[in-house]
Amino acid sequence: MKKVHLGVLGYGTVGQGVAKIIQERYEQFKEMIDVDIEIKKVLVRDLSKEREIKLDEKVFTLDYKEITENDEIDIVIELTGEIDKAYDMIVSALNNGKDVVTANKAVVSKYFEEFTCIAKEKDLNFLYEASVGGGIPIIKPLYDIVKLNRVKRVRGIMNGTCNYILSKMTEEGSGYLDVLKEAQELGYAEADPSSDVNGDDTLRKLRILSTIAFKQPIIEDEILMDGISKIKASDIKLLEKNGRVIKLIGDTWNEDGTIKSIVQPVAVFKGSYFSSVNGAFNSITVEGDMVGELKFYGSGAGMLPTANAVLTDCLDIILENQKTETHGVGCDLEVKSDTISGKFYIRYEGDNKELASYADEVLSESPYVIITKEVEFKKIKQIVSDDENTAIIRIEDGDY
User: What is the pLDDT of residues 235-291, one digit of tens each?
Assistant: First the structure.
């Protein structure tokens, strides 16, 4: 029977989920695939901390090199949530001949090309299914789609925290801060939620998916971004009267031979597909020229869904079902996100003549709420800058 040793970097929610699944499915793994899977070492910050999922105390270490440089370890699972430290650990693991699996979208997004190239050169695996969409299988299906399709568009609700907050505000009429506090108490939002609510988390996931989909690097700086922290209950009520609900959506598409990519709150029609994705759930759609539009839906986070995605990658490595794929040769299209335009719902305080000049419809004058004519998103952002009293929401006219 084949023996496979895992080294786990980080033992938080997902790390413990990995251990839990292995403990509960240990005999099944042995019977089903004739493999004995064992967690050999786990990196932690505090050796004395009590943990829900128990492991032998000898397994824990404070030194990541006891994992990345350990000749007995076959696969390194990186689950720290760090960026720079995670980079050092992943490179160390690859340079020491280890296959790597990660759920860390921040480090994958920042160093995507470098990691995949190192893995390819060394004939190793660098897999990251859990970095986008939690338990939703999307990375492997997307690689399959691009083999025969030219992708026209990738878009979706990719952050469960934001979707939970917007859903609760819509259902209950509650204010943003009240729902955020509730989300933090329930564990849906971090103590510092800025990465989620400002849009960074969605942007990183969109960058990964877009790079695979369009077979060329689409880096973070090429994606426009706006978050949900300025949205108020009054915005939701006004848009509800117009038959719309607000969702934070990441969107990359090919428009007339150029790539455009943005993360922003979007007012979609009630009854449209994304309007029905509620709570902490995620959904991603991919449109190919041969396959049409495919929809992927499920839990975007959580201990077991994310751990399931991590261990599925591990099983693919063990069974040699998958090798690291680079993005390959794409169309080499120019990324021109700065030219993204549309109609926008804007709420702002005071008399702003420049904003008012773009108004196509005035919904309120205290505070001012307008629906703009067609205008570039970048122009609106330049006018309002970081004004805390101004919310911008894209008005989507099509079937989103």
Answer: 999 999 999 999 999 999 999 999 999 999 999 999 999 999 999 999 999 999 999
DSSP labels, 245-270 = EEEEEEEEEEETTEEEEEEEEEEEET
Residue 28: is it exposed, middle or buried by C-beta count within 10 angstroms (0-12/13-18/19+)?
Answer: exposed
User: Is the distance from CB of 202 to CB of 228 less than 8 angstroms?
Assistant: no
Are the CB atoms for 159 and 183 separated by under 8 Å?
Answer: no
Nearest to 104 by CA among 74, 135, 134: 134
Can you say whether the dihedral through the CA atoms of 75, 141, 261, 349 is positive or negative? negative
Minimal CA–CA distance to 150: which of 99, 85, 216, 67?
A: 216
pLDDT band, residue 201 (cuts 50/70/90): very high
Nearest to 307 by CA among 134, 108, 115, 155: 134
Q: Apex CA 194: angle with CA 335 and CA 233, to 5°?
A: 95
Calpha distance 344→357 (Å, rounded): 13
Beta strand 368-372 pairing with 359-365: antiparallel
Catalytic residue from among 105, 205, 230, 260: 205
The whole-angstrom distance between residue 32's C-alpha and the CA centroid of its chain comes to 32
- Read off the pTM: 0.95
Query: What are the phi and psi torsion angles at 348 (to 5°)?
Result: -150, 160
| Strand, coil or helix: 35 | strand
Which two tokens mark 101? 């699996």
Bridge partners, 348 (sequence order): 368
Q: Which residues pair with 101 in a beta bridge?
A: 77, 127
Q: What distance in Å separates the CA atoms of residue 115 and residue 228, rounded to the nearest whole number?
A: 31
Q: Scan for tokens 């997004």, then name that residue.
A: 109
Per DSSP, helices labelled H in the chain are: 13-33, 65-68, 84-95, 105-121, 139-148, 160-172, 176-185, 194-197, 200-213, 233-241, 303-318, 353-356, 377-384
49 catalytic? Reply is no
The predicted structure's pLDDT at residue 32: 84
Q: What's the CA gap between 76 and 211, in Å, rounded? A: 24
For the chain, helix, strand, coil in percent to 5 are: 40, 25, 35
- 219, 116, 112, 201: which is closest to 162 by C-alpha? 201
CB 315 within 8 A of CB 25: no
Angle between helices 303-318 and 13-33 (to 10 degrees): 40
CA separation for the pair 193, 196 (Å, rounded)? 6
